[in-house]
Amino acid sequence: MTKSDFRLGILGCGKWGLNHVRTANELFGVELALVADRNPLAADKVVQISRSIKFTSHPEEIIESRDINSVIVATPAETHFELARKLLQKGKNVLVEKPITLELSDARQLVALADEKKLKLMVGHVLLYHPAVLKLKELLTAGKIGKLQYIYSNRLNFGTVRTEENILWSFAPHDISIIQYLTGSKPESVSAKGASFLQENIEDSTITYLSFLGGIHAHIFVSWLHPFKEQRLVVIGDKGMIVFEDSAPKDKLRFYPKGFNRNGGRLEKFDGDFEVIRHDDKQPLAEEQLHFYKCVIENKQPLSDGKHALEVLEILKMAERSLKESGERNSKF
Ligand SMILES: NC(=O)c1ccc[n+]([C@@H]2O[C@H](COP(=O)([O-])OP(=O)(O)OC[C@H]3O[C@@H](n4cnc5c(N)ncnc54)[C@H](O)[C@@H]3O)[C@@H](O)[C@H]2O)c1
Fold first, then answer.
1. Is residue 124 in contact with ligand 1, taking CB distance under 6 Å?
2. Which atom of ligand 1 is nearest to the CA of 36?
3. Sign, Cα dihedral of 293, 298, 302, 307
4. pLDDT (tens digit, 9 = 90+) per residue, 12-49?
């Protein structure tokens, strides 16, 4: 396959979908064959990106197209399964936004369908394409912080409050995906607690606790009811610590040579100055789209493939179940 064999369509031109359209227009130009949103008003926003992008308010034009072989789906989560299923059945490679689907059985069906049709199924876990996350993984693999012990992720903002999903579904897929990637394994237990202040039964803040075989522990704190944006990932090992602070203006990735050595029965602290870790300055969404393109053209398995996304969904479901159970159990004075 060559570049001209990659013919891209995009379904969904809402808040995030327009980022996909803008990025794909810059990366692929004419290979971006058609974009669609069932709301005709989205056309005005697409025109502002470029007058040469073709728009339709009939998504089936992309689904039925004989010309388009690869499609990005950036519509609301509840539509992912049906759209991705139709596209795979029509022989198209799919990059669907996170979460892959709302139900595990649907996600399993998509994974099986992509396998059967020998098509690419990739999910938009965009942080796996962030150069700082890739660098962090490289450092862990090289033993920079020794044995991995604890990870926590704060994803907090005074941000968009969604009505169709709680903060766990909106934000935590990113953190679960990164923790999966860094640990390379699935947790053996997941528990979560949360609180709803703005809308009934839609949690604004949740804390999810994960523990893994081999003694690694992690927690994820997400909220859209927080005075400022904070995206901080802290990774603790027995020889040092790494912090990735995506919300920081600069020096986002830092190594802290801190920890404790055991001397006989005593714990001795080591505590050095942090070192800024350099990494590529590439845009994660562009890297994600380029990865999709390469996987299609070179017939490679995506990093955030359907199986990775299915594991993320399994963990999300376990957290959701625990959240609802703990909510019901909480007694009041
Ligand atoms: N990877 C990330 O960092 C990230 C960030 C934000 C959102 N997202 C994901 O992107 C997806 C879209 O989120 P959003 O914030 O853009 O939502 P949005 O509500 O702003 O936009 C969704 C768009 O899809 C359109 N749409 C709905 N059904 C359609 C259909 N059947 N065919 C064509 N168009 C259809 C709507 O008209 C709307 O314009 C969600 O799955 C969300 O989880 C991912």
1. yes
2. 33
3. positive
4. 999 999 999 999 999 999 899 999 999 999 999 999 99
Taken in order 130, 313, 327, 198, the sign of the CA dihedral is: positive
pLDDT at residue 328 greater than cutoff 80: no
Which of left, alpha, beta for 251 (phi over 0: left; psi -120 to 50: alpha)?
left
Q: What is the CATH number of domain 3-124?
A: 3.40.50.720
| Per-chain mean pLDDT for the chain | 96
* CB of residue 77 inside a 6 A radius of ligand 1: yes
Q: Whose CA is nearest to atom 9 of ligand 1?
A: 97
15 Cα–ligand 1 center, Å:
7
**What pTM was estimated for this model as a whole?**
0.94
The ranges of the chain annotated as CATH 3.40.50.720 are 3-124
What's the confidence (pLDDT) of residue 238?
97
Q: Is the CB of 76 under 6 A from ligand 1?
A: yes
What pLDDT does 2 receive?
A: 59
In CATH, the number for domain 128-284+316-328 is 3.30.360.10
Count of CA atoms in the C-beta half-sphere (13 A) of 210? 30
